[in-house]
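Collaborator request log, item 7. Partner lab (contact: R.S.) asked for a structural prediction of Major facilitator superfamily (MFS) profile domain-containing protein to inform their binding assays.
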Amino acid sequence: MSYAKGTNIILLWSAATNFLPIVGAFLSDSFLGRFLTIFVGSIFSLMGTILLWLTTVIQNAKPPSCDVQVPHSCKTPTHIQYTLLFSSFAFISIGAGGVRPCSLAFGADQIDSKDNPKRERVLESFFGWYYSTAIMAVMIAFTGIVYIQDHHGWRVGFGVPVVLMFFSTFLFVVAYPLYYKLKVEKSLFTSFCQVISVAWKNRKLEFPDSIDGSWYNKNDAIVTKPTNNLRFLNKACILSKPEDTTKVMAKDPWTICTVDQVEELKALIKVTPLWSSCIMLSVTMNQTTFPVLQAKTMDRHITSRFEIPAASFSFFTIVTIMVWVILYDRVILPLLSKIKGQPVYISVKLRMGAGLACSIIGMMVSGIVEHIRKNKAIEDGFFDNSQGVIKMSAMWLIPQHVINGLADGLNIIGQNEFYYSEFPKSMSSIASSLYLLGSAFANLLASLLLSTVNELTKGNDKTVLECDKNDDLGDEQGPKSEPGS
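Returned to partner:
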């Protein structure tokens, strides 16, 4: 399988994995509740990791071993082998669709008490620990799990996640009696459709002059009026006859909607422009395969005996995110507050914008390093040898990983904080899934970008992405020699 084809498969799978959380979020907030959604997602994730592990255990579930330095000796996987592999990916994606959007919101439900005077500080602390824990888990995956796979093989390397997933699911279920479980009241998707339908039906109604008694609220809710943003949607909750009792009108939700229903739909629409602007950052962050291929062709030794695995260079991105979270929460904000003599808060939108700027700088640095690496490979005589290691330290890849980590720490954490603060509590799972939905679109865009580059750079019966990593289509070298050791 070529680099381009393999990368496209990974990008499309990542797109599915990042898209399904929005489906899981709607199911959670509308029908199943967060506990049941997480439980079902955990079971699917466990099944997916088991299937993936079986592809390394069952002899007929994978192609026979071959010499990677002689590509023509390697057999293509059969349809059954592909089916088993892609089935494991599908189960893992479905599992992610249940776990990812609900875990943050479900955790916040356990500690979010309106009677607690320190409620905001408790939630802020929880978010900080949640992200730090998630980052530590990814860091362990990029270091410990990758190390096991490199030194003990895929069988053990894929077996460890199976054991960990089993114990995490078991511990989650055992603690069932201790959880606070928020009751599901309605289907959000149906509610949104009702608001749009009723607003269209009432489009010819005039907005009421009087505020009191002109808007439909829940029977047990405090009487409120809708906001003036997206004002045309307010017609969905106008009481055409304020003297009518709301009990009669409530029998047909397709005739009139509550103010809360209207505001929930507005919350989703208002974040769309800012959400869409952050998709391109995820496109740059999703270019994960080629940095690994870059590292494989460079000197990765720290000492004469210790060599960093190529896939573990993402460790520097993870460490940067974790360091930024700690510095921002424990050093930067307290120091600025002390200097100004009052609490200082850097706005979410400013942090998101700074993250976008860092992602641009990171891609520029990445391009410069790749240009130098390619020229060095040609100088060292590794033009057509994809297995050759050039005399250039892989440590030159660290700056781009650090800058990308800072971009993640600024933008992604800011995104989740922004969505959670903008949405009502009944939509917390959807708020937690919006970043993942953006990542899904980014995966599709990255795949399209990859396919476009692959198509436009055809030459000598090969494209720039199908060549050896030290190759250059711009030079004529005649027939390729067999790679050396």
